[in-house]
């Protein structure tokens, strides 16, 4: 026995000084890993990342603390296991109709060279889109459970690069540098290394663990380190969420490549997904039967799929005595009457689904009661409000609540600070979530364009798009609002957030301001037609905080959104993504003060083909939206009156 142990230890010592590398399938990204003396620590796990032959992440330490005892030094490599994968999978819905999951992987088994000889495994994956790693604490000896009290995942950069940081999921982004980032920086975090090198660091597959954010690494220049929101406890083996380093030639390419986060999550766990239906949603703000029916009629007329009853339908959302299993209106929000069963029945007759808001207080208390009840009522989905985030307890609770909703064939939207890390792949009934400074907080165009190239790397976001509210004229333009429906991806896209259909009763109170009647402006045809999920996605132009042009395809149709900020701009959009054997009709929606409507949006229509170049232009706070359809289609030239 002693000879065997000596032999293994000898192997570990030999392997510990050897560096190994993992390349992306296209060879452009290389992750190097070794165990070595580094930064005052002996025999610690160290990684680095290079892109196109140049380092983008310098040598950075990896490690954990288990019960306050560091597991970061005195390590040796026991075994290395490489593998690769190149598969394609089709989502229930997405920003593309299929995703390629192509990576090279290295699993490394480590062991302490001194007592207590604890084991730690690291898994590295390198995609063409970036690199990722996670920790696994395997079963070992008499250890059955583990308590991770700290994670030492470092991200050391070679200079004090520009970064776009925010300390809360719905906060205001700051264009800063790495050294000035405040503790608790949100993820994903975009960083500009050079004119043609952009990085995003973040977290994927956070299901049952404390959330990770970032803080500046003390006494090390130009470096960040993981910051956990509390401990993570669990039985062995325990695997942490993934930490990723995306690398691309532009901010737009980072956004295009955000499917790496989905690839780092498990495949769909729902066998029958036929009941999961993306769609456009209008919020019912009056909490009345008449208001619900008016919203349903509006949804039918304008191509929406759902209405949602928001806070107040079952009482004051922050009153712990409020009962989410029965209609009991909050008098400060509505005088009623609300016959919810009548509205659900009316919606079913018209093909429109009803969604219900439930604050986290009621959801935490009544979840097992209300979910089967809502399914019995005929509700299609639930919106969990003001969900707790950060500690493992609340991460676990929310994803459990998504799974229990799936058991009852209910779709889910999670508000407020929660940000997705890709669980929508595993449970696609998790349609969307907030974690975004959307229209409710009246963001400037600059802020929304910061959000687009940072928050949207994580995936779907419920931006609660408004249209007629006065904040549109103050902050942006109406064509810019149309473009949001293309650029800001959400399989449940809430439109007209502060607006109500004509004929609905007036709202009594509540947050948000005065709701405005929805009119019949011609450009609303764009909202009528725009899909919420896509077969292909391209970022044509983009600069963080300044402008973006995105093109998305649904079937044979293409939609383009142009969002602008800070200066008047003209941008060329080559239509080379169109089929070369077809003619199309482009419907272009532009801001024009000369148009005699309250929204001042002009519509132009003309024939285009793959050889044409669209000349898009926008004012300093404006935008444009474009719909392109095959000219052979009956609706190609619908000269609306």
Give the C-level CATH assignment of the largest domain. Mainly Beta
Tell me the fraction of residues in β-strands, as a range. Answer: 35-45%
Q: Average pLDDT, to the nearest integer?
A: 94
Q: Which CATH architecture of the largest domain would you pick?
A: Distorted Sandwich
**Tally of DSSP β-strands:** 38
Q: Could you say what the CATH topology of the largest domain is called?
A: Beta-galactosidase, Chain A, domain 5
Distance linking N and C termini: 89 Å
- The whole-angstrom Rg is 26 Å
Q: Class by helix and strand content? A: alpha+beta
Work out the helicity level: 10-25%
Q: How many domains comprise the coordinates?
A: 3
Tally of contiguous helical segments? 12
Low-confidence stretches: 1-16
User: What's the story with the biggest beta sheet?
Assistant: 10 strands, antiparallel
Write down the overall geometry. globular
Describe this structure in words.
With 641 residues, the chain is of the alpha+beta class. The protein folds into 3 domains: 2-263, Beta-galactosidase, Chain A, domain 5 (Distorted Sandwich); 279-529, Aldolase class I (TIM Barrel), CATH 3.20.20; 536-630, Immunoglobulin-like, CATH 2.60.40. Helices cover 19% and strands 37% of the residues. The chain is built from 12 helices and 38 strands. Strands 7, 8, 9, 10, 13, 14, 15, 16, 20 and 21 form a 10-stranded antiparallel beta sheet that branches. Helix 4 packs parallel to helix 5 and helix 6 packs parallel to helix 7 (392-407). The longest helix is centred in the middle third of the chain and has 18 residues, at 360-377. The N and C termini lie far apart (89 Å). Mean pLDDT is 94; it is low at 1-16.
């Amino acid at each position: 026995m002693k000879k065997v142990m000596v032999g293994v230890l000898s192997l570990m010592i030999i392997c510990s000084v050897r560096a190994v590398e993992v390349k992306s399938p296209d060879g452009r990204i290389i992750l190097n890993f070794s165990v070595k003396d580094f930064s005052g620590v002996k025999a610690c796990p160290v990684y680095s990342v290079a892109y196109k032959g140049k380092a983008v992440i310098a040598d950075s330490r990896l490690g954990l603390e288990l019960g306050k005892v560091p597991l970061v030094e005195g390590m040796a490599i026991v075994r290395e296991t490489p593998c690769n994968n190149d598969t394609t999978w089709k989502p229930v819905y997405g920003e593309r109709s299929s995703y390629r999951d192509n990576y090279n992987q290295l699993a490394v088994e480590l062991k302490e060279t001194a007592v207590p000889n604890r084991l730690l495994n690291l898994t590295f994956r390198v995609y063409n889109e970036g690199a990722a790693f996670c920790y696994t604490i395997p079963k070992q000896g008499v250890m059955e459970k583990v308590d991770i009290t700290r994670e030492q995942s470092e991200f050391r950069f070679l200079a004090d690069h520009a970064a776009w940081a925010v300390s809360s999921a719905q906060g205001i982004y700051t264009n800063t540098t790495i050294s000035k980032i405040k503790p608790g920086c949100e993820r994903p975090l975009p960083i500009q290394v050079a004119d043609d090198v952009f990085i995003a660091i973040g977290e994927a597959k956070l299901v049952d663990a404390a959330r990770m954010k970032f803080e500046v690494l003390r006494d090390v220049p130009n470096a960040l380190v993981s910051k956990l929101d509390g401990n993570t406890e669990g039985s062995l083996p325990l695997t942490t969420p993934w930490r990723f380093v995306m690398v691309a030639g532009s901010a737009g390419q980072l956004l295009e490549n955000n499917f790496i986060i989905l690839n780092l999550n498990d495949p769909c766990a729902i066998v029958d997904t036929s009941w999961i239906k993306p769609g456009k949603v209008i919020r019912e703000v009056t909490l009345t039967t008449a208001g619900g029916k008016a919203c349903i009629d509006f949804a039918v007329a304008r191509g929406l799929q759902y209405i949602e009853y928001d806070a107040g339908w079952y009482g004051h959302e922050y009153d712990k005595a409020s009962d989410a299993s029965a209609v009991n209106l909050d008098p400060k929000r509505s005088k009623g009457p609300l016959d919810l069963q009548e509205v659900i029945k009316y919606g079913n007759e018209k093909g429109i689904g009803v969604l219900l808001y439930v604050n986290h207080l009621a959801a935490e208390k009544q979840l097992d009661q209300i979910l089967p009840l809502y399914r019995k009522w005929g509700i299609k989905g639930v919106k969990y409000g003001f969900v707790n985030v950060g500690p493992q307890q609340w991460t676990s609770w929310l994803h459990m609540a998504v799974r229990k909703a799936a058991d009852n064939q209910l779709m889910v939207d999670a508000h407020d600070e929660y940000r997705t890390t890709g669980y929508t792949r595993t449970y696609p009934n998790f349609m969307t979530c907030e974690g975004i400074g959307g229209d409710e907080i009246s963001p400037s165009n600059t802020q929304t364009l910061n959000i687009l190239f940072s928050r949207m790397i994580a995936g779907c976001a419920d931006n609660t798009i408004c249209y007629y509210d006065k904040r549109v004229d103050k902050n942006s333009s109406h064509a810019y609002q149309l473009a949001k429906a293309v650029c800001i991806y959400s399989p449940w896209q809430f439109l007209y957030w502060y607006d109500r259909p004509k004929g609905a009763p007036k709202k009594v109170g509540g947050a948000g301001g005065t709701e405005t009647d929805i009119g019949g402006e011609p450009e609303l045809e764009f909202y009528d037609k725009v899909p919420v999920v896509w077969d292909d996605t391209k970022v044509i132009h983009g600069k963080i905080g300044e402008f973006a042009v995105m093109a998305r395809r649904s079937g044979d149709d293409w939609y383009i959104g142009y969002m602008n900020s800070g200066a008047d701009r003209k941008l060329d959009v080559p239509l080379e993504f169109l089929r070369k054997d077809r003619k199309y009709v482009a419907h272009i929606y532009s801001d024009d003060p000369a148009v005699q409507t309250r929204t001042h949006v002009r519509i132009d229509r003309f024939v285009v083909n793959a050889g044409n170049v669209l000349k898009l232009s926008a004012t300093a706070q404006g935008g444009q939206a474009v719909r392109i359809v095959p000219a052979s289609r009956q609706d190609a030239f619908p000269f609306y009156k």
